[in-house]
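Field: sequence (string)
Field: structure_tokens (string)

Example rows 1 and 2, in order.
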Amino acid sequence: MPLLGVVFYFSKSPRYIPVEIIQAKVVSLFILTVILPVLIYLLLKTVGVVNTINLKTTKERIYPLILNGIIILIVLQRILTPSQSAELYFFFVGILISNMTCLLLAIMKFKASIHMIAISGVFMFFIALSIHFSININGTLALIAIIMGAIATSRLHVKAHSYIELIIGIFIGVVPQLILVTYWL
């Protein structure tokens, strides 16, 4: 989801950003937010920390969330700076806050929906970008809302989460983005 937000930002931003910089940031973020987490999952599965990709128990979620937080910190320190792109920087700060909130809840034995955290955070970021750049992306927002509904329905259908876990997930995804939007909007 972070990569989706970054690609969307670069496709809609009216600012001139050299193509080489966009490519470098997207490739770097792809490696750090897609490839590295997959490799970390395989390592955690090999050493027996996690059993399945679904992270069914709160205990299984702790190490992946800690490692994801470290990855996001690396992104914030090395790839995205507030001087280059305040929107993306604060988007990732919001992701970090959501990640740490989910980690805290996992430590307290509550399993919030990470799927809903991710999609609702991106949804709020898209809304903020449409306001910030004064662009009409109603079709994209409607599509994301439908995808959010499909994700929530599928999580309920496979009995991976309860209604409250989904609602808490949406809340954890939206609120940090909503609070941080005041720093760049």
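Row 2 begins here:
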Amino acid sequence: MLELIWMYTLVFLLSAIPLLEAVIVIPFAIFAGMPAVQVTIIALIGNLLTVYFIIIFIEQIKKWRKNKKASKKSTERRSQRAERIWKKYGLPGLAIIGPLIVGSHITALMSLSFGGTKRGVTYWLTFSLIGWCVLAAILAHLGFDLFNTRDRELF
């Protein structure tokens, strides 16, 4: 029982880390033999909590980033890519595509920096992350069944 709690805690914490994301953690946890539905819910909650944290404290984060001014080229490239998506598809497009390209945390930061409202960013990223997490869980579960690796339980 204690080992199971530890595994769920690890899924929660890993999915909360920027750039690791729930979409990446879910297939690994399912591959490790954890139930798909529970893993998906816990990973989604971990990812969403940190995204909501960014949304709530965006003003402080912008001040901190402005003071830091040590931007890397890879961050600039990601920002440019996110800005192109923003200009072409707006908030819905960036919220749906962003978690796969730059990660959900950076997507939240960029969406708010490009002019998205806190309410809109919260809505669209929640919708997007639920969709991507469910899709990742289904694909991981079906993929393991397809390769007939071992019996998997959905619940």
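free_text_note (row 2): The first helix runs from residue 2 to 16.
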